Task: structure prediction
Amino acid sequence: MAEWLELETVDSTQDEAARLLRAGASPLPPVILAKAQTKGRGRFGREWFSPPGDSLSLSLILSEAKGHPQPWLLGMALACAAAGVIHGRVRWPNDVFLDGKKVGGILTELIEGVPVLGIGLNLNQMEFPPEIAATATSLALHRPGLYEAKAVAQKILARFFAAPLPQDWPALAPVWALFDDTAGKHFRLPTGEEAIAVGLGPHGELLCSVDGESRTVMAADAILGVP
Result:
């Protein structure tokens, strides 16, 4: 893999990737790694808590996957790679959990047609803001130690690239099943309705139940967790 772009501070590694892609930067770094983000974000524009030195904040630019028919599968595959490295679990579509609490997640975006996968992973935090303290955890809280972001990232990406990029759900489904902790979890749909996950469909979409009625939800549409 070509040389990574390593930054002390950035607003968001995803935003930096977007700037480079839109400017036609060459050579384009395959990975952007930041020690701190001032405006880190997750799905639906939610803020991602990433204090300096305590988190893995990285964006993977998959130029070779431009035009991928189902780009959300790439984010799901990266979530599985992260879960495998830290011995965690995944919840649809791309959240990573330890001890039933969220430790990280993947943000998949298409920028100039190129899939860009953002990784946020809590490493060394010993406490969290009150609004997420009950639902968040870190590697250090799970398994005491001091974790270095680049070393963890290298392990995750090595696992991710150890197999061909999934082109369809059947290629990813057996791997996802090893880590899946989705069934029975609650989601909020774009309609505001609360749904209970049943499983995943033939394209990696969520199969869920709303008051006993079956629904199918694509990865961009549902929010994991109901207040």
Remarks:
- The CA atoms of residues 49 and 132 lie 9 Å apart.
- The radius of gyration is 17 Å.
